[in-house]
Task: inverse folding
């Protein structure tokens, strides 16, 4: 009776950390049609709970006690539900399963498709169509730290980490309802934010400190709505307007000169393409003849300042399409002919909208605060807190 009361109490509390931290639910291995995972629990005690389709408790399948945490669980998509095994021992088939713990330090290791990952928090499993759904319920600060490490954990600059923490937190708050009907908030990949592992590599302590220092800080519009906090690796010296890459103009995502990104790690690139393929591509996409006039226009294409389109005889092609079709690092390049090849000599890496990570790194090196970094890349927005969000 005592155990059942504890489990009901924990379920009613949403299985958070025991503190007042917000939690997010992140779908793991979202890019795969998942059939099975292996799971090892690293903290002292988890409850393994069987749930029905309405997510109501049916039974406690197992308790993981101290000394038992190194045992491996296997969860497989089955004909009648999720098959659960503990090592070689078959434990049953269930509609839904939860691995929950009241320990705020709780963490686990999970593997599938050749990837071994470690996370904090709880786990929820269910089947949807022909795949196994795996959702990690994790405290927001743990999630933000993991995203910062996954997206930008390669330099030890506290102000840069703070800027990235604010961006990751802002993005999570803006997108938190996107997958609500599917039973989770975010995914672990580029459709949301990269969430590869818990923060635990070289700069993990600095990243966690940056998350704590910025606490609930997010970027807001005047109407107290979170902004679209997009970023990229390197602007090449000029950021782009949002409509240059996507469809809609966004007032705070405006093109600007960015000298901080010049000379960064991802600043320069080069690509060789055969002249035949290059000229034919533009002729076909523009619906014009592949003649000397078109070829001359392409060879004279000038990007002393960054452009969004190639224009010819009243027609235009968005350079993001060319970048996508040829797998280029950016849309910012100059064209040179060398024998049977076109040489694209380019600048920057990524879509070019919002914060440039190389630029932010350089700003941090020069002593700029995270607030100054964010003000530089996002126009007419304010720093606020999650508590200010409109309900």
Result:
């Amino acid at each position: 009776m005592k155990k059942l009361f504890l489990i009901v109490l924990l379920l009613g509390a949403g299985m958070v950390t025991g503190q007042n931290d917000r939690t997010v639910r992140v779908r793991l291995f979202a890019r795969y049609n998942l059939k099975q995972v292996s799971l090892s629990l690293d903290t002292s005690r988890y409850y393994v709970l069987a749930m029905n389709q309405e997510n109501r408790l049916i039974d406690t399948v197992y308790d993981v006690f101290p000394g038992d945490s190194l045992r491996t669980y296997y969860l497989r998509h089955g004909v009648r539900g999720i098959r659960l095994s503990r090592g070689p021992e078959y434990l049953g088939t269930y509609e839904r399963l939860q691995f929950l713990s009241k320990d705020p330090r709780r963490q686990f290791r999970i593997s599938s498709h050749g990837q071994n990952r470690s996370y904090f928090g709880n786990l929820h499993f269910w089947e949807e169509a022909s795949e196994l759904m795996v959702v990690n319920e994790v405290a927001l600060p743990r999630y933000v730290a993991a995203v910062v490490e996954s997206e930008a954990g390669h330099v030890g600059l506290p102000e840069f980490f703070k800027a990235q923490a604010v961006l990751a937190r802002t993005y999570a708050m803006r997108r938190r309802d996107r997958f609500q009907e599917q039973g989770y908030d975010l995914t672990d990949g580029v459709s949301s934010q990269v969430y590869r592992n818990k923060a635990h590599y070289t700069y993990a302590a600095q990243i966690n400190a940056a998350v704590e220092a910025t606490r609930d800080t997010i970027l807001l519009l005047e109407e107290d709505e979170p902004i679209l906090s997009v970023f990229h690796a390197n602007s090449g010296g000029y950021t782009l307007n949002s409509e240059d890459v996507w469809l809609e103009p966004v007032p705070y995502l405006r093109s600007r000169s960015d000298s901080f990104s010049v000379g960064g790690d991802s600043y320069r690139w080069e690509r060789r393409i055969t002249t035949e393929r290059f000229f034919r591509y533009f002729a076909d996409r523009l619906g014009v003849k592949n003649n000397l006039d078109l070829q001359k226009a392409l060879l004279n294409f000038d990007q002393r300042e960054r452009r969004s389109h190639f224009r010819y005889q009243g027609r235009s092609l968005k350079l993001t399409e060319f970048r996508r079709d040829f797998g280029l690092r950016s849309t910012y390049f100059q064209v040179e002919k060398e024998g049977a090849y076109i040489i694209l000599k380019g600048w920057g890496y990524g879509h070019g909208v919002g914060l440039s990570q190389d630029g932010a790194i350089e700003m941090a090196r020069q002593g700029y605060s995270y607030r100054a970094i964010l003000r530089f890349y996002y126009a007419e927005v304010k720093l606020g807190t999650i508590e200010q969000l409109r309900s």
User: Anything to note?
Assistant: The chain has a mean pLDDT of 91. The longest strand covers residues 131-139. Residues 2-138 form one domain.
